[in-house]
């Protein structure tokens, strides 16, 4: 049995449907019916916020930390998988490779609320002396129904509603993207069989904004423009050796994955 917290969201919804198709019993509690003193089986905690965390700091902290803590303390479970983010590596420099043992650099401030709250949620999990409590740091997950508050989701939303979009970062900015279909196939395997406490789940390669928006234009039509003189924003390359070695993980490229919209 799996319990998916956050099944009404993008990743949680895909995951719950995937597990049901695999024949698992899947519980999907809502915010209004969070369990207490229950045996939850194998838990995957997908509750979280995306780019809208800047408008709701307290919501981010509650989602990433406080609700997590209450549920872990008040229920029994066979395993627990907490979905964090590779965004926590953002302070490491574009020239570096970020793996699960890399040092993490965070500068306090409003834009760091997301990273710090995710790291605190990770710490709540990793403080448990239980090897079946694990953390996944997810890259930028894309697919049909993704939030309009994400970078790619906002571009798609603009193209669908206005036929054009403006990017306020340079064309050579880059980040890692991973398909939601690859993610939901891998997460249950980590939950059930993972040997480590932390895993990066990403494509393992960065895609420039220029390449990405041309793929998006090819799928949705319209036109994406870049603001003149915009700054470059680049993230470290995400190392995925753990997933490659343990699970024969072969993530598709973002250009291929856009076909799933």
Automatic annotation (TrEMBL):
UniProt cross-references to SUPFAM superfamilies, sorted A to Z: NAD(P)-binding Rossmann-fold domains (SSF51735)
CDD domains registered for this protein in UniProt: SDR_e
Functional pathway: Bacterial outer membrane biogenesis; LPS O-antigen biosynthesis
Annotated Pfam families: Epimerase
Domain NAD-dependent epimerase/dehydratase span(s) in chain numbering: 4-42, 78-202
Gene3D superfamilies recorded: NAD(P)-binding Rossmann-like Domain (3.40.50.720)
Entry's family note: Belongs to the NAD(P)-dependent epimerase/dehydratase family.
Record's protein name: Sugar nucleotide oxidoreductaseepimerase
Top-level taxonomy: Bacteria, Pseudomonadati, Pseudomonadota, Gammaproteobacteria, Oceanospirillales
């Amino acid at each position: 049995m799996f319990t998916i917290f956050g099944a009404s969201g993008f990743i949680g919804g895909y995951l719950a449907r995937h597990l049901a198709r695999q024949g698992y019993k899947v519980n999907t509690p809502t915010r209004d019916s969070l369990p207490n003193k229950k045996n939850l089986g194998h838990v995957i905690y997908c509750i979280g916020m995306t780019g809208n965390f800047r408008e709701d700091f307290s919501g981010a902290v509650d989602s990433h930390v406080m609700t997590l803590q209450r549920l872990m303390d008040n229920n029994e479970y066979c395993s627990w998988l907490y979905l964090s983010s590779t965004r926590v590596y953002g302070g490491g420099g574009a020239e570096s490779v970020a793996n699960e043992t890399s040092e993490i650099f965070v500068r306090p401030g409003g834009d760091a609320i997301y990273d710090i709250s995710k790291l605190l949620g990770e710490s709540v999990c990793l403080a448990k002396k239980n090897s079946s409590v694990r953390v996944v740091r997810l890259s930028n997950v894309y697919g049909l129904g993704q939030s309009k508050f994400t970078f790619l989701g906002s571009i798609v939303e603009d193209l669908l509603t206005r036929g054009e979009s403006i990017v306020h970062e340079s064309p050579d900015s880059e980040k890692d993207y991973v398909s939601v279909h690859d993610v939901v196939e891998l997460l249950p395997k980590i939950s059930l069989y993972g040997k480590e406490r932390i895993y990066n789940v990403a494509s393992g390669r960065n895609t420039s904004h220029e390449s990405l928006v041309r793929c998006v234009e090819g799928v949705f039509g319209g036109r994406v423009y870049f603001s003149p003189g915009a700054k470059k924003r680049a993230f470290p390359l995400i190392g995925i050796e753990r997933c490659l070695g343990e699970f024969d993980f072969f993530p598709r490229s973002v250009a291929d994955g856009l076909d799933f919209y």
